[in-house]
Design brief:
By secondary structure, this protein is an alpha+beta fold. The protein has helices spanning 29-43, 98-104, 117-126; strands at residues 25-27, 53-57, 61-66, 84-89, 94-96, 112-114, 128-130, 138-144, 147-154, 158-161. The chain folds into two domains: 25-105; 111-167, Archaeosine Trna-guanine Transglycosylase, Chain: A, domain 4 (Roll), CATH 2.30.130.
């Protein structure tokens, strides 16, 4: 039987729901090196860039968080997010996030595409631009005017923007 409440502000009593652990798993050792090695292999970013960060795993992504001796004390907290997303788990590969690329992309030595203004406008407004570039097929770092913008996908003849629309603002 369900009680009907007619009083303003009344509520239906419920049982407590056990909180499924919201704290992500710590990724260490060889697995951490392999995952962060993606940035080194693909973009030439030295692994030392990540020395002050810990890598955490959630169901859909890997996250980076500044290392602190107090982090383990926080595991008892119920959290929605911890740190910044670094790598998304796709069906058969991982994808670097715009946030991570913006954070470490200035350290990249390869697979960086420096866009001209017209190219940038087309990538942002149309989603892609046809180009022949001296970079490997796959994810690339997009830059403009000495600023790291985020991630793109190069197919060999087309550059597809991967920057979330929510990151883009027009004057």
């Amino acid at each position: 039987m369900i009680n009907k409440w007619n009083d303003v502000g009344a509520s239906t009593p419920t049982r407590s729901t056990l909180w499924d652990s919201s704290w992500p798993r710590l990724v260490g050792g060889p697995r951490r090196s392999k995952l962060l090695g993606y940035f080194q292999n693909r973009f030439g970013i030295d692994l030392h860039v990540f020395d002050h960060l810990i890598l955490l795993e959630r169901p859909q992504a890997y996250w980076l968080l500044t290392h602190s001796p107090h982090v383990l004390k926080l595991k008892k907290l119920k959290v929605h997010n911890t740190g910044i997303p670094a790598l998304r788990k796709m069906k058969d590969h991982i994808k670097p996030t715009t946030t991570a690329i913006q954070m470490v992309g200035a350290n990249a030595t390869k697979n960086v595409v420096i866009l001209e203004k017209e190219q940038l406008v087309r990538v942002l407004t149309e989603g892609s631009v046809s180009l022949s570039l001296p970079v490997s097929r796959g994810y690339v770092i997009l830059a403009y005017d000495h600023h790291t913008l985020g991630c793109g996908l190069y197919t060999g003849s087309k550059l597809i923007g991967q920057i979330p629309r929510s990151y883009i603002s027009y004057p």
